[in-house]
Specification:
- The chain has 449 residues and is an alpha+beta fold.
- It is built from 9 helices and 23 strands.
- The strands form 5 sheets. Strands 11, 14, 16, 17, 18, 20, 22 and 23 form an 8-stranded antiparallel sheet that branches. The protein has a 5-stranded antiparallel sheet with strand order 1-2-3-4-5, with helices on one face.
- Helix 4 crosses helix 5.
- It is globular and about 90 Å long.
- The structure holds zinc ion.
- Zinc ion (ZN) binds next to loops.
Length: 449
């Protein structure tokens, strides 16, 4: 262990040294410099190079491969001149630790061999994914073990202005689409991301993950300031004393009690909530105590909040109906379903976002749609204008800690703003060639079926 850390220190030192020499080599030849440098002896001794798996690569022949189509573990080892019996033994031993049948085309592996080509490979590292790897090492005996690379996380900030859609704004900035997904998750209740306005903009602070210095993906969003229709919506990630999630600048939770729509993706509204609507089948005026979504047949319908199923059956004009009791204040109903999801029956408990059924056309309908209702204290209310209270706030005792986090994130977002105010090259691009599909496809509220 101590030896290893020494090597690491020396390696770091050698990197530093080599950097320094690179700079100096401009004014004099490097060889002379090395001789003159008393440190050069140390430098020569520890010039070992290690790869990202921690293995020496300077004294060994290292080769990288990508697994080809139809290439099995057997075929790979066969390529390196292992006998059928040896391959059988290796596979048997590997069984305790890994399933070599999980080898898939496109996955990477690296082999290590001594300079003597006849000796064969002494090590094989298989990477089923960018993080985890399996080492097969042939020394006195075969040694197999699994390990994983360390992931470094940094904080990055970005900003963008929306011209047609959030997705496009993300693309223009070279940002991950996953970031758009996470944003819409945080603001699930506050902002309808299918009805953004041109000019809406945001600044975001988020985690970026790296493996071996290469970008691996994004982590959590830490803070966002989203300006929508001239109003600023801030969100901060915070964890303390049993609370965890996203909170606004006052410490109110962003996670509302109910989802904004009972779908994973927003659907076109074919008939709005109304106290006095002309009924297309009954040909008379009567209230429409819900919202109709013209979603495709079979689209999964989600429970908008956790709760207990109080009804899941076929009921006349309503067709297949699910009702969920969320809390003492709210219940929701989902009508005309094609059928129910597995386990959805009276008395079952559901989680927010759980699939409860599928859009259909059962009961008295003119076409396939979901009729969705929210009841507040027993009275039907318009789901589209409902202003729900936050589910859980930062407790008073944690507010000082929350304030510190908020101020730190605000400062970092402000730094981003300074960069933003100095646009060279510009950070936003106006897309002129395309129709603004993002908002058109969301559907207007006034169409009826
Ligand atoms: Zn309806």
């Amino acid at each position: 262990m101590r030896f290893l850390s020494l090597i690491l220190v020396f390696t770091a030192f050698s990197i530093l040294t080599s950097c320094r020499q690179e700079v100096r080599s401009f004014d004099q030849p490097q060889d002379t410099d090395l001789q003159a440098d008393p440190d050069s002896v140390v430098f020569e001794q520890v010039k070992a190079e290690f790869d990202s798996f921690g293995f020496r690569v300077d004294t060994l022949q290292v080769n990288d491969y990508t697994i080809k189509r139809n290439e099995s573990f057997y075929l790979i080892l066969d390529k390196f001149n292992f006998s059928a019996q040896e391959i059988h033994n290796i596979t048997q031993k590997a069984k305790e630790l890994v399933d070599v049948r999980r080898l898939k085309p496109g996955q990477l592996y690296r082999t290590y061999a001594s300079a003597d080509a006849d000796a064969g490979i002494s090590r094989l590292v298989w990477q089923p994914n960018p993080v985890d790897y399996v080492v097969f090492e042939w020394q006195d005996s075969l040694n197999i073990y699994t390990s994983s690379k360390s992931i470094t996380t940094t904080q990055e900030s970005a900003s963008a202005t929306i011209h047609s859609s959030l997705y496009e704004a993300m693309q223009n900035e070279g940002l991950s689409p996953l970031l758009a997904y996470k944003l819409s998750d945080i603001y699930a209740w506050e902002i309808d991301f299918y009805r953004l306005r041109s000019g809406d903009n945001f600044k975001v602070l988020y985690e970026k993950k790296y493996i071996d210095g290469e970008e691996y993906g994004i982590g959590d969003i830490l803070a966002v300031q989203f300006e929508h229709m001239g109003r600023l919506y801030s969100a901060y990630k915070f964890e303390s004393e049993g609370v965890s999630g996203y909170f606004d600048e006052e410490g109110n939770s962003m996670q509302k009690a109910l989802l904004k729509v009972p779908f994973k993706y927003n659907q076109r509204i074919s008939s709005n909530f109304s106290y006095n609507r002309f009924h297309p089948i009954l040909k008379q005026r009567r209230p429409h105590y819900g919202v109709d979504y013209a979603a495709p047949y079979g689209t999964p319908v989600l429970a908008v909040g956790k709760g207990t199923v109080t009804e899941a059956r076929y009921r006349g004009a309503n067709g297949n109906i699910v009702q969920i009791h969320h809390n003492s204040t709210y219940r929701t109903a989902y009508l005309h379903l094609k059928g129910f999801a597995r386990g959805i029956r009276k008395g079952a408990t559901v989680e927010q976002g759980q699939i409860i059924g599928y859009v259909g056309n059962t009961g008295r309908v003119t076409g396939t749609h979901l009729h969705y209702e929210i009841y507040k204290n027993g009275r039907p209310i318009n789901p589209l204008t409902l202003d729900l209270p936050a589910s859980e706030s930062v407790p008073e005792s944690a507010m000082p800690a929350f304030e510190r986090v908020r101020q730190e994130y605000d400062r970092k977002l402000l730094d981003q703003q300074d960069e933003y105010a100095f646009p060279n090259p510009p950070l936003t691009h106006i897309n002129s060639g395309l129709p603004s599909g993002g908002r058109n496809s969301s559907g207007a509220l006034h169409t009826t079926d």
